[in-house]
Design goal:
The chain is an alpha/beta fold. The protein is 44% helix and 21% strand. The chain contains ten helices and ten strands. The strands form two sheets. Strands 2-1-3-4-5 form a five-stranded parallel beta sheet, sandwiched between helices. A five-stranded parallel beta sheet has the order 7-6-8-9-10, with helices on both faces. Helix 7 packs parallel to helix 8. The longest helix is centred in the last third of the chain and has 20 residues. It starts with a strand and ends with a helix.
Length: 254
């Protein structure tokens, strides 16, 4: 297995030392340790690494600001945001800014195991999937797209309504569509129906907070390939992608 090179950005010597020690079990070597937020971007600009462990609370510049600058300067490390705060809003904001994983301090070893399983999928995908996402809420659309990119999928189109999604899907069918039910104009039910009637080679997964028995029956009748309830667990997204890959491989072998 190729050695994974990491940078730790955290102002605690004790925490960094513990993390550095635990990372060895995953063939991950820490090549730099940064204690001050203002030193993060200059170091990342000149030091190539695979993964960055970034604390939120840092002197002079916090983790969210560093995430923004990582994007502004076109840097592309796999960023793991860390914090001792139980703050869902912070986690959401970090994901929106491009963080691929979130670790709550103090962490458990099992969390690192999940992280590196996800990192390997991101780095060595078996089958990069082309994905379209449709949701009328910009924040939910952004969160889902960022979650999908964690698994190295290619999110090629984001729609806020069913009409634009169907038009794009017919012109250039993706591997998989993640579709909300409640949207203005053409809702998710009608969008699903039109995609399936067009006989597109696309798998359609409904992502919705409306998980009534009636809704589930309708989407099954219309041919949905999966259903994910909001708020969704990242593991559920990962499992859906694995299922699509397996189904695609079976279709290719048929």
């Amino acid at each position: 297995m190729k050695t994974i090179k990491a940078i730790i950005v955290d102002d605690s010597d004790q925490f960094s030392g513990l993390l550095k020690s635990n990372l060895k079990a995953f063939n991950c070597v820490v090549i730099k340790e940064i204690r001050d937020g203002k030193d993060a971007i200059p170091t990342l600009k000149h030091t190539r690494c695979d993964i960055v462990f970034l604390d939120y609370h840092l002197p002079n510049k916090n983790g969210l600001r560093i995430l923004q600058e990582i994007d502004q300067f076109g840097l592309h490390p796999y960023v793991v945001m860390m914090s001792g705060d139980e703050d869902l809003d912070l986690q959401i904001r970090a994901e929106c800014l491009g963080a691929k994983f979130f670790i709550q301090k103090p962490y458990k070893t099992n969390e690192l195991k999940k992280l590196f399983e996800q990192f390997q999928v991101h780095r060595d995908p078996l089958h990069p999937l082309r994905v379209y996402v449709a949701d009328d809420e910009p924040l939910m659309r952004k969160l889902l797209s960022n979650t999908l990119r964690r698994y190295n999928t290619s999110v090629e189109f984001e729609a806020e309504d069913g009409e634009s999604l169907v038009k794009r899907a017919i012109e250039n069918p993706p591997d998989i569509v993640f579709l909300d039910l409640e949207m203005p104009g053409m809702d998710g039910f009608e969008t699903l129906k039109q995609i399936k009637q067009a006989n597109l080679p696309s798998y359609v997964v409904i992502v919705s907070a409306h998980s009534s028995i009636e809704n589930i029956k309708r989407i099954k009748e219309y041919g949905a390939d999966g259903f994910i309830v909001k708020p969704y667990a990242h593991e559920k997204i990962r499992q859906v992608l694995k299922n699509v890959i397996k189904a695609s491989n079976r279709d290719a072998a048929a």
